[in-house]
Amino acid sequence: MDAIRNEKPNLFDFDADHEMILDNADRFARNELYGLSERMDNEEWWPDEAFPKIGDNGLFGITIPEEFGGAGLDLFAAGLVLQGLARWNHAMALAWVAHDNLCANNIYRNGNEDQRRRYLPDLCAGRKIGALGLTEPGAGSDALGSMRTTARRDGDHYVLNGSKIYITNGPVADVLLVYAKTDREKGPHGISAFIVEKDMPGFKVAQKLVKMGYRGSQTAELLFEECRVPAANRVGEENEGVRVVMSGLDLERAMISPLCLGIAERALELTVDFAKTRQQFGKPIGSFQMVQSMLADMYVHVETMRTFTYRTLSAAAKVEIGEGGRGDIHRLTAASVMYAAEATHKVLDLAVQVHGGSGYIWESEINRLFRSTKLMEIGAGTTEVRKMIISGELLKGMKRD
Ligand SMILES: Cc1cc2nc3c(=O)[nH]c(=O)nc-3n(C[C@H](O)[C@H](O)[C@H](O)COP(=O)(O)OP(=O)(O)OC[C@H]3O[C@@H](n4cnc5c(N)ncnc54)[C@H](O)[C@@H]3O)c2cc1C
Asked: Measured between alpha carbons, how far is 200 from 179 in angstroms, rounded to an integer?
């Protein structure tokens, strides 16, 4: 089955270095993370040793310059690391993306020199765990407009009040990039971003949430009750958080696609193996044309996803600091993640079908992968929000009544 996973596409910016990055992440994840995935899924268990190990192997801080402890590569390389990790432990891969992309890369792109020096080396080493808090109980798809968490200035501090929900890494995070309203009158243009540390007074994890998929990646509701954050931890200018959110969301969407791709590749691999070995009517089920049809459909979805994913990563890697959140890249990243999520859903649906009853059993790997698919159509903006972005960009300039 290596033929499927190791197919080397000559695509966009994919070169020998990228091949090495993907192979290296794949090897590390197979040796070090795959063995953790079953217990993570069974118990929503968080293996404390995993993040330092990922850091020791140079697989954090991919997009962050070496002077801050990172690898000094680009978003394309980061996507390949994520694809490799997702093949073997997609829950850890989700924790990785929340840490490395949503938190560390956002601090690098939007933080000042002091913030970069204080936070990035520990995040790149995996000594500290990062998270990003945008979504609230009353503010999901309308995260900016409906945001209720506030931050009021008090001397050389801001005081945060409110809550965040569904935050990946929330229960275990040391460093959180959190959005709050500094001017309620200004709506989305009254939002600022802050770096909150878990020990800051007034911060607490309200509850750890139990999920249907991606189990073991930790998810929480977070509370801020008169939480005092030094003004030095505000990221960017006051009331300019919307820029940070919007450009960060484009990069996040570009990164969800390789997460989907890694999962779908593994599902295809498992399913082809199963079709070759499972016997019915005295033959491998792979000899039946209807099973062959399902495998062919899965393959086409995976390869289309690969092409679109790499094209989008290649474009997103060129987005300068301060750019994104509008225009071609906004449309492309929304389209890529929308396609990847829907294609992964289809691939896993077919994979379970080929696996028959064994695919329906909770403990099987294919079942674990199947339960992961729905989140990709919800997180980082739902399918409907992605469609709104794509059509909104296509219809720009249209006269509306
Ligand atoms: C496991 C998990 C991890 C997550 N991790 C993070 C994280 O690390 N950080 C973070 O900030 N957030 C995180 N999220 C939150 C995620 O981004 C939100 O769940 C998502 O944006 C949707 O918001 P919502 O759940 O409130 O759904 P809602 O916004 O309430 O949407 C419900 C339904 O209504 C539809 N809908 C809403 N508005 C419209 C509209 N105008 N037109 C058409 N349909 C519409 C939606 O598409 C959806 O189908 C995570 C969520 C999950 C489940």
From this structure: 16
Ligand 1 mutation target, pool 96, 148, 382, most atoms within 8 A of CB = 382
Q: How far is the CA of 140 from the centre of ligand 1 (A)?
A: 5
CATH fold group of domain 132-235:
Butyryl-CoA Dehydrogenase, subunit A; domain 2 (2.40.110)
Superfamily (CATH H level) for 241-394: Butyryl-CoA Dehydrogenase, subunit A, domain 3 (1.20.140.10)
**pLDDT in the model for residue 124:** 98
Check if CATH label 1.10.540.10 holds for domain 2-129.
yes
The secondary structure of residue 302, as a DSSP letter, is H
Q: Does ligand 1 have an atom closer than 6 angstroms to the CB of 168?
A: yes
Contact 389 CB / ligand 1 (< 6 Å) = no
pLDDT beyond 60 at 5: no
- 1, pLDDT greater than 60: no
Enumerate the active-site residues.
Answer: 252
- Greater model confidence, 296 or 11: 296
Q: Taking the domains of the chain in order of start, what are their residue ranges?
A: 2-129, 132-235, 241-394
Cα distances (angstroms) measured from residue 92 to each of 35, 95, 208, 213? 12, 5, 17, 12
Rounded mean pLDDT of 249-265?
A: 95
Query: How close is the Cα of 165 to the center of ligand 1, in Å?
Result: 10
Give residue 147 CA to ligand 1 midpoint distance, Å. Answer: 13
CA of 119 to the centre of ligand 1 (A): 28
Q: What count of Cα atoms within 13 Å lies in the side-chain half-sphere of residue 266? A: 25
Q: SS3 helix, strand, coil % of the chain, rounded to 5?
A: 55, 15, 25
What confidence score (pLDDT) does residue 75 get?
Answer: 95
**CB of 140 sitting under 6 A from ligand 1:** yes
- Hey, which of 44, 92, 135 would you mutate to test ligand 1's pocket, going by the most ligand atoms within 8 Å of its Cβ? 135
**CA 303/CA 154 separation, integer angstroms:** 54
